[in-house]
């Protein structure tokens, strides 16, 4: 919303103001000019949302302004398209130059496919982002191309291997091709680290950890029960012996002493340190994933 201009939000089903029309989202030229001209005319511009207000659907503006913007859009379409083509050509040349600088040995036949894929508009792929430096974008685009076209990555996924496990498996193959295409001084381009495991792997590890904890808890319970049983037996024998000697001393003759129910005594509380004795202190096996510094979608080319 432009500074100093009110743009009230209205639901899609709210009554349309007299003389206004709905302008759907999608054409940046039309929506931007509708907004600018409505503000310049001192009229109210309405932002149309879904009924739950979670999604913006478009604008409501005076019909006359919308008609004027549509006419200008048609009149300038060819010129604007030429500007866009020129800008795209510059972007493609810049990307290609950077790519050949980092990967001077890349086969010429591979270049068009990489450019076409990574620079596709509205794809959210790395070539279109403004959040990364050119070198980072080039590296990510080339690595993605190698992964999809020069490794068995898709076959592994098709066979049911989790995505991050498949990436770990092909990491060395990606590095090998990348180093062949790049400068000899380049270090491996696919780094490997221990985090960001696949959801399936995490679930399996969690299940294994739960099983380990259950087994250790069972062993602790068994040992504690054994210790308690042994302690009760010793205590029972000791009490019986003391009572017998005491009565003999008093009466001078043998007296039968009733057995003491040690089980009825209050159980001794677990020692503080015992709970730590059997904790799972085993180191987990290191596992690694291919890191690309970006969290991408299943397509592996997008941001």
UniProtKB/TrEMBL annotation:
Region (Disordered): 190-232, 249-303
Bias type Acidic residues, positions: 258-303
Coiled coil regions, renumbered to chain: none
Segments of skewed composition (Basic residues): 214-230
Residue stretches making up the DUF2293 domain: 99-182
InterPro entries given in the database record: DUF2293
UniProt-listed PANTHER family: DUF2293 DOMAIN-CONTAINING PROTEIN, PTHR38113
Protein name (database record): DUF2293 domain-containing protein
The organism of origin for this protein: Phialemonium atrogriseum
